[in-house]
Amino acid sequence: MNADPVDAILVQWQRERPDLDVSPMGIIGRMGRLAKHLERAIQETFSDFGLNVGEFDVLATLRRSGQPYQLSPTQLFNTLMVSSGTMTHRIDRLEQAELVKRIPDPGDRRGMLIQLTNKGFNVIEKAVEAHVANEHHLLSVLEEAERKVLAQLLRKLLISFEE
């Protein structure tokens, strides 16, 4: 297997600090570098639809919630793990683009719901198809068995942080 830029960093640390087990640097370093590459590649796909990652996340969350494709702002920011201010900004931008609309919450006179518009529904349908195709492409270097092992390992690591 070919060396990557992280291998050079590990060699340097092993030379300078042979007393340290720097193997975690390899894993974490590669994950960080991969995250940057993946974010860039994913954003390129979303840009084709006039969206950024955060806006895609809002539309996708509304779409996967099922009909009538509406959630409260609180449900959205809790699901997406962002602040209420960040969520308000995203909703404002999506509303300006006529991809979502604010509607009164029939269950709470003071509340509002965020609902996909027909235009928003059409955009997210196309964007999610392109996104999934892009993700398949990004992972195409891995065999199916490797993908399954990687998914299991990443799930285990993520659970350890989110419990």
Overview of the molecule:
- The protein is mainly alpha-helical and 163 residues long.
- The protein folds into 2 domains: 1-47; 50-162, Orthogonal Bundle (Arc Repressor Mutant, subunit A).
- It is 67% helix and 10% strand.
- It is built from 7 helices and 3 strands.
- The protein has helices at residues 5-16, 23-47, 53-64, 73-80, 84-96, 118-138, 144-162, and strands at residues 70-71, 100-105, 108-116.
- A hairpin with a 2-residue loop joins strand 2 and strand 3 (108-116).
- Helix 1 packs antiparallel against helix 2 and helix 2 (23-47) crosses helix 6 (118-138).
- The protein starts with a helix and ends with a helix.
- The mean pLDDT is 95.
Observed structural traits:
3-stranded antiparallel β-sheet; Arc Repressor Mutant, subunit A; 163 residues; mainly alpha
Give a count of the beta strands, DSSP E runs of length 2 or more: 3
Count the DSSP helices: 7
Assess the beta-strand content as a share of residues: 5-15%
Strand order of the largest sheet: 1-3-2
CATH architecture of the largest domain: Orthogonal Bundle
The parts where pLDDT drops under 50 for at least 5 residues are none
Please give the CATH class of the largest domain: Mainly Alpha
> How many domains, as an integer?
2
